[in-house]
Amino acid sequence: MTTAPHQQDEVTCSFCLRSESELGKLVQGPGVYICEECIKACSQLVAGSDLATSGRAPWQRALSDEELLTQLPRLAVVGTQAERALTELVRKGRAQGITWTRIGASLGMTRQSAWERFSGEQ
Ligand SMILES: [Zn+2]
């Protein structure tokens, strides 16, 4: 996936798609990040209660055209974050001695495809 250079190191909440610079600290999971506001919304949803303010989670609100266009590159950043985490996990598996054949089979691809996508070699 290709993104503009300024987006490559930007961290984005995987739920509301706002950047760390807008939100402050984000909690990191494998390939995902979440902000405090989205954590609160998730906690309310898991508890089965209605969302306190708008009745919608931050990622469920209606978007104007401009907001939608702003979110497109941000969602691309989320994809980049997930791809980076996937590559890191594959390389960790390789360091543990897991073969390219098994990694490929796990991902539903050939050994060669897995190597080409994740090895960093050409
Ligand atoms: Zn968020």
Give an overview of the whole structure:
The protein has 122 residues and is mainly α. The protein folds into two domains: 11-62, no CATH class; 75-122. The chain is 50% helix and 5% strand. It has five helices and two strands, in the order αββαααα. The protein has helices spanning 20-23, 36-46, 65-95, 100-106, 111-118, and strands spanning 27-29, 32-34. The longest helix is centred in the middle third of the chain and has 31 residues, at 65-95. The protein is elongated and about 50 Å long. The two termini are 17 Å apart. The model is unreliable at 1-7 (pLDDT under 50). It binds zinc ion. Zinc ion binds at residues 13, 15-16, 18, 34-35, 37-38, 58.
The helix tally amounts to: 5
Instruction: Please report the total strand number as a whole number.
Output: 2
Query: CA-to-CA gap between the ends?
Result: 17 Å
* Residue share in β-strands: under 5%
Spatial strand arrangement across the major sheet: 1-2
Oligomer: single chain
How would you spell out the order of helices and strands?
HEEHHHH
The level of helicity is: 40-55%
Shape label: elongated
Class inferred from helices and paired strands: mainly alpha
Q: What is the residue-averaged pLDDT?
A: 86
Q: Spell out which ligands are present.
A: zinc ion
